[in-house]
Design a protein that fits this description.
Helices cover 6% and strands 44% of the residues. The chain has 202 residues and is mainly beta. The longest helix is centred in the middle third of the chain and has 7 residues.
Amino acid sequence: CTNEAAITLKPKGTAVLNESAAKAGATNGIQHLGGVVGYATGNTAVIDHCTNTAQVAYTAECPVNTMTTIGGVLGSTDSEIGNNVAAGTFACDVTISNCNNSGKLIWTYSQKPAGNAYNNLLMGGIVGYLEGPISDCTNSGEIYAHGWRTTDTGSCYTKVVKIGGVAGVANKDVTNCTNAAGGNIDFSSTITSGDLAAKYIG
């Protein structure tokens, strides 16, 4: 399977929700965005020999209390990811093998928020969040993630950031995978360390 067409998601609107819950990692909405598959489930599901060559972009008006997963091939494998990450429980075991991404991945806030808002990001060249194993995959697409914190009209925080050249989060073995030339990670934020609950980039 191959995707050669650009994918762009532009959710609109902001709101102010419970800040303490957001800081603890709770989520009110989850977006899965992938070049080939947005969301996959099932203990026997296999994504094999799939390729994405197009840009995958997510630009938002600072969505509130959400979790966003972005991958060149697959977005995520768990629709309850926000709760399961906190609880340490996982629901499915999807396998990814022999897949490639050369498309640019983009995540960014496009406007200042109207009030205090939080967002969590899991982003990888092949997959944003994966519970199963991944093998023999290559990413050569740039990973671009830019967010900000403002103090005039409100605050827009990214509480959890996990970005990888191959996977943002992988809960099982990653074998014989490569983040090749061109797969640069460009992360920028004005968030202070006290506001950022977790940041893992590599």
